[in-house]
Model the fold of this input.
Amino acid sequence: MNRNVVLKLTGVERQYGQGHTLLPILKGADFSMSKGEIVALVAPSGTGKSTLLHIAGLLEHPDGGEVNINGHACDGLSDEKRTAIRRSEIGFVYQFHHLLPEFSALENIMMPQLIAGLSWKEAGERAGQLLDYMRIGHRGSHRPGELSGGEQQRVAIARAVANAPTLLLADEPTGNLDPETASYVFDALEALVRQSGLAAVIATHNHELARRMDRRVTISDGKIVDF
Ligand code: ADP
Ligand code: MG
Done:
């Protein structure tokens, strides 16, 4: 496989049980993206965006098909190996920040690095740099509850990339923000992604933001199509 392919989905299927019937959501979805690419995933609610991101992020198993991340075929792997790949290769951002409320912004960004085995000093330095990069360096000691929605999302983005993943998966990261704040947060996200050479899939309902990405895909009848 091409070395630059970060994420490749082949024939991915997923269905959910509904009473006695199965509701098919993904029906042979194919998708491939390269290093440095930012792809917008724009599709109506309920079409399977979160399902797709969870499968790509190894948080959920597909019912069929294959997920390949940086050349690792992930489907036959043990949960331990999948977790290891997820921790080293993938960063996640959700619509709601999911920051730990009892810890400061800086500590939230340090956490994944400490789990990965970095020292307190190293983790703190990188967390500080990321906060500066997201232009909230002055907010490091604040807890999430003391930050605005846009600031919380910028901390969540910094946390997602703290361990230098190769793939960033963002599930409506600005969906909870007013348009101006959304645009500002997206600017910071885009700058970070461009600078680090990450590949990013960003699910959004915001067509204006989607137009700024390299490529736009949607989910149509359980498949991923460019538009
Ligand atoms: P989106 O993110 O595009 O709004 P989702 O991936 O969250 O869509 O959901 C796609 C469909 O699958 C929806 O109809 C949703 O209700 C259903 N669904 C998602 N997760 C589950 C689940 N764990 N059990 C049953 N149905 C689910
Ligand atoms: Mg969703």
User: Anything to note?
Assistant: The chain has a mean pLDDT of 94. Residues 49-50, 171 surround magnesium ion (ligand 2) (CB under 6 Å).
